[in-house]
Amino acid sequence: MKKNILLIGGSTGIGYQIAELLNENNNIIIASRNKGELDNTKVKHLEFDVLKDDISELDLPETIDGLVYCPGSIDLKPFKMIKPESFEKEMNLNFFGLVRSVKGVLDKLKNSEQASLVFFSTVAVKVGMPFHTNVAAAKGAIEGFAKSLAAEYAPSFRVNVIAPSLTDTPLSEKLLSSEEKREKMSKRHPLKRVGKAKDIANLAAFLLSENSSWITGQVLGVDGGLSTINSN
User: Structurally, how many domains does the chain consist of?
Assistant: First the structure.
């Protein structure tokens, strides 16, 4: 029986790759501001802005078996240059948007035999990195929220977080805009390359499947070894 899987903000990059992997055997709904790369797929798209709209007003199935929250940002600046409003902006997009989304579909998630929720963090929460204060703060909130949510709703829900390092998506195009930049970023990782969207999507697809039915409350790094290995 096909599962109903809702991706929020998944019309490009990692979200699109997740939809590609799962679309054949599941009912995929993507709620995002625009269709992005979805024109050539059979994925159902619903127009939705996580900062403005109420997700409970969307035409969603009564049962949601999987929820993936994809919105994020890469706004890297020295702390002295970041205004408090920037921290609020990051928290609203990354964290409060997530909270509102989960709240808005909570009853539909409860209708599932065991819903799987997948959120995204960053390697910069585990490994302190310069210029990441606002992003890491918002993503750190997600990690704490996910673990508490997993505890509160077990065994009804499974909740896990993926923490990537730099991944080649439209979001990171400024950081990878030349071969010189790409080579420099690749060398930072023990596996000597930056991530691909499919690297992250493969794990998300696993976490949404029955193959991961005994995994919850985890923060899983997909980072080319950056968070745990010093190969230099």
Answer: 1
H-assigned helices in the chain: 13-22, 84-90, 97-104, 106-110, 123-126, 133-153, 179-187, 197-208
Q: Is residue 129 part of a domain?
A: yes
Examine residue 118 and state whether it is found in any structural domain, yes or no.
yes
Q: Among candidates 204, 211, 181, which has minimal Cα distance to 194?
A: 181
Which of 116, 139, 165, 212 is catalytic? The answer is 139
Q: With contact defined as beta carbons under 8 Å apart, do 37 and 9 qualify?
A: no
CATH number, domain of 129, equals: 3.40.50.720
Residues 6 or more apart in contact with residue 198 via CB below 8 angstroms: 17, 21
Note the pTM of the prediction, 2 decimals. 0.96
Asked if 121 is an active-site residue, the reply is: yes
Asked about 181 being catalytic, the answer comes back as no
What confidence tens digit (pLDDT) does each residue in 69-105 have? 999 988 899 999 999 999 999 999 999 999 999 999 9
Domain limits for position 83: 4-168+196-221
Catalytic residue among 121, 126, 165, 212: 121
Residue 231 lies in a domain: no
Is 12 among the domain residues?
A: yes
